[in-house]
Amino acid sequence: MTSAASQAESDAPVSARGLRKAFGRQLVLDGIDLDVRRGEAVALLGANGAGKTTLLRIAATLVRPTRGSIRVAGADCARDPEAARRQLGFLGHGSWLYEDLTALENLKFWAALGGVSAGAPALRAALAALELDRWADERVRPFSAGMKRRLSIARLLIAQPKVLLLDEPFTGLDQGGAKWLEERLQGFKSAGGALLMSTHSFGRGFSVADRAAILYGGRIAADVRVAPLGTEGVRRLYEVTVEVGA
After folding, report:
1. What's the confidence (pLDDT) of residue 6?
2. Rounded Cα distance, 45 and 239, in Å
3. How far out from the chain centre does Cα 117 lie?
4. What percent of the chain has pLDDT over 70?
């Protein structure tokens, strides 16, 4: 690893420069510059179609940029996707669970894939924290959407990634599940993890965010720290930004 890449990894595990993405004639991202530092969570805000999911999918190595670059833990997501994938956890709209396996078997599989040594007692404890221990040995297929969401989040965290990329992570969670996730994400940040997530809500999930990046017209229209403004201040800034842009 070059010294420049090593410095990028230590300072900002997620770093995008001049990121551009077009699907045919539709320009979705147009020159995105964004850093997410260690111990920091950045919330992506924007209307449907603003490019939040596209940005996350490029960072997750699932979509190649048209131009520009994004690095995860020092690895270029387009040029060295395997290295980037080893350092990140991605939660999209799908669960990425094997529905014919049990909840416990799913966690065992993802732990092995991530090179994590975790025995059955530790994995059962993780399921108990999610209030899924009663269904540890049940196949996932009949689980409710909320149960699958909680299990899919647990399989990310047991792999201990340096970077989490989450697309609307609190969707489908009940109050208990949302509280559990909020606590885990705060712990992930405290351990030095970097978190980039999209959200349409200014509720509980937004309290995890240290910064808010508002996407409009393919660009970052505003990038602000949450604490000085408060949730309501960010909400007003979002509304003004979208209204002025419209």
Report:
1. 46
2. 11
3. 23
4. 94
